[in-house]
Amino acid sequence: MRLFVGPLFVVSWFFFFLSPSCSIQPVYGAQHPPLDSRLTKNFIKDRSKAGALPMKSKKASSFHEFARSTSDAWDIGDDEDEDFSSSSSSLQTLNSKVAKATAAQVLENHSKLRVKPERAQSTLGDMPTNCKVIKSSSEAQLSRTSEEACVRTPLQKQQSLPLRPVIPLVARISDQNASGAPPMTVREKTRLEKFRQLLSSHNTDLDELRKCSWPGVPREVRPVTWRLLSGYLPANSERRKLTLQRKREEYFGFIQQYYDSRNEEHHQDTYRQIHIDIPRTNPLIPLFQQPLVQEIFERILFIWAIRHPASGYVQGINDLVTPFFVVFLSEHVEEDVENFDVTNLSQDVLRSIEADSFWCMSKLLDGIQDNYTFAQPGIQKKVKALEELVSRIDEQVHNHFRKYEVEYLQFAFRWMNNLLMRELPLRCTIRLWDTYQSEPEGFSHFHLYVCAAFLIKWRKEILDEEDFQGLLMLLQNLPTIHWGNEEIGLLLAEAYRLKYMFADAPNHYRR
C-alpha cells in the first residue's frame, strides 16, 4: 500500500489510531499526485529540529525497501482491505493527549510554510484543537476560504483519503483529438477518401496502405484496415467475405471443442488467473465491467492459452485484447463506446467482434511470443536494449538512474509486457497501434524506440527527482491522462528519428 509522508498525512495517521473505526484507502495514479515534495522536505527538516515526532524519515534507497512501502499503481482495489493490525500493535500504547499535542505541533509546523508569520500566530493561537484538515495542497488552492472555515468548524475525523478517481471526460476513447484539433479537417477528409479508394480496389496495395496508415487511420475505416494490416484479411477483396466467415466459424469451433475443459483440473490455474485479471482490465471504463464483455474476454484468453501451451496465459495479455475489441465494436456503434451497453447488439454481431478480436490478437502475439514464454526472454532482451539505447541518447538520465540505483527492469518490464497500455489512455494506444501495424516489426522492434522516446520525454521530471522512491513513483504514474493524437504524433516522430539513427548502426549504442 502506498503511503505518502507529509504533514497533513501524519495528523490523519494519528487520528486513525485514535479511532478504530477509521480506515485509510490508498491513493492511485497520477490523477491524485503526492503532496508537494518541497513541503514534505521542509517538514522533515522542521520535525527533526523540534524533535516532535520520533519517526524514521529515511527514504527508500533500494528496490526492496521501496517494494515494502508501495505497490503497482495499476492494481486498483487489491490492497483496500489490508490489515493494519501489525502496524497498530506497535502504537497501541500511544496516549491520546500526546497524540493530539503532536498533531497540533505538526499543524503548526506545516502552517508556517503556508501562512505569513504574523498571521500564523494569531490564527493558530485561536484555533481549536479540533479542526477540519485539508487533504492535499491542490485542494487548498481550489478552495481559498478553507483556512477561514477551519477556524470556525469543529474537527471531523478524517475517515479516508480521496476515493479512487472517476475517469474525466477528456479521457473518452472516442476523443481522438484531445489536444484541441478540429474533428475533421479538409486534409483528413482527403486522407479518408484515399483510404476508401485503397480498400475498395480489387487487390489492395498493402505497402501503400501501410504508408497511409503510419500517421493514423481514420475511425471510419480503421476496423477493415486493422484486419488487413494484421494479416487477418487477404488483400483480394473478393476473398474477404469467405475468409471472415471461415475464420469466425473456426474460432467458435474451438469454443465448442475446448471451452468446457476450463473446469478440468489441469486447466484450473489458467482459468482462475484469467478470471482474476479480467475485472482489472481498464477498470475505469464502464464498457469492460459489463458481464457479457468479461465473458467474451474470458473465452478469447482461455482459447488462446490452451492453443499456445509453450507460453500459456501470462498476465498482461488480457490488455492486448482491448484495442481490437474497441475498434471492431466501433464498426457497429456510432456513439461513445466506453458507455455502450453491448446487450443492444445482435448475437451475430457480438460473435463477429469476438472472433475478429481473437484472430487479430493472435496475429500480434505471434510476433512477440518470446515475451511470454518461460522467464519471458523477449522482455529481458528488450529492456537491456532500452538501457543501452538510453545510455547513448541521454547519458545524463542514464547516470541519474545509476546514481539512485534504479534498474530499468523495475519500470520498463511493464512497458514491454503491456506495450505501454498502462502508461497511456486507451485512445492513445489505438492511435499508437495504427503506426505499429504499418511499421515493419512494429510491436517487436519499433516499440523499443517508442519506449526510449517516451522515457526521454520526461527527462526534466526524472532529473528533478533525487531519491529512489521518487523516481519509481514518477515512472509508475506518468501524467498522460490528457494525451491525444498530437502528443502521440510527436512521440512517434521522435521514435522514428531514433530508429533512423540507431537501428541500422548497432555500434552507436555499444560501449
UniProtKB/TrEMBL annotation:
Extent of the signal sequence: 1-23
The organism's place on the tree of life at top rank: Eukaryota
Gene3D superfamilies linked: putative rabgap domain of human tbc1 domain family member 14 like domains (1.10.8.270), Ypt/Rab-GAP domain of gyp1p, domain 1 (1.10.10.750), Ypt/Rab-GAP domain of gyp1p, domain 3 (1.10.472.80)
One protein family per Pfam: RabGAP-TBC
SMART domains with a match to the protein in the record: TBC
Keyword vocabulary terms for this entry: GTPase activation, Phosphoprotein, Signal
Molecular function in Gene Ontology: 14-3-3 protein binding; GTPase activator activity
Glycoprotein as UniProt keyword: no
Keyword flag Zinc-finger: no
Domain (Rab-GAP TBC) ranges: 216-440
Summary of the function given for this chain in its UniProt record: May act as a GTPase-activating protein for Rab family protein(s).
Protein name (database record): TBC1 domain family member 22B isoform X1
